Amino acid sequence: MNEDLIGSWVTIELTSGKTWTGRIEEWDEDAIFISNGFEFGHKSHKGAECTNDEASKVTPTDSREFAVE
User: Fold this and answer.
1) Which pTM does this prediction carry?
2) Dihedral sign, Cα of residue 35, residue 60, residue 18, residue 67
C-alpha cells in the first residue's frame, strides 16, 4: 500500500497478466479501488476493484484514460 498514490492515476499490473489504468480512490490493507475520475454516483462514473494480492505492480502514469482489460 502506498498512500502517496491515492488520488493519482496509475497503471496496475495484475498477477493474471491483465493491466488496468485508473485513478486510485481507495487503497487499504485489503484492496485497491480505481475509477475513471468521476465521483461515485455521477452518471459517468466507472470503477474497478482488485485485492492487493491480485496487484503485482502499481505505477504512476500520465494516462488519463480509464481502462480495465
Assistant:
1) 0.91
2) positive
Burial degree of 67 (CB within 10 A; 0-12, 13-18, 19+): middle
Identify the DSSP state of 47.
E
Contact 6, 26 (CB under 8 A): yes
Q: What cell does 36 get?
A: 475513471
Q: What is the mean pLDDT of each run of 10 residues along the chain (69 residues)?
A: 91 97 96 94 95 97 94
Nearest to 26 by CA among 45, 47, 44, 43: 47
Query: Of the candidates 43, 5, 3, which has an alpha carbon nearest to the alpha carbon of residue 23?
Result: 5
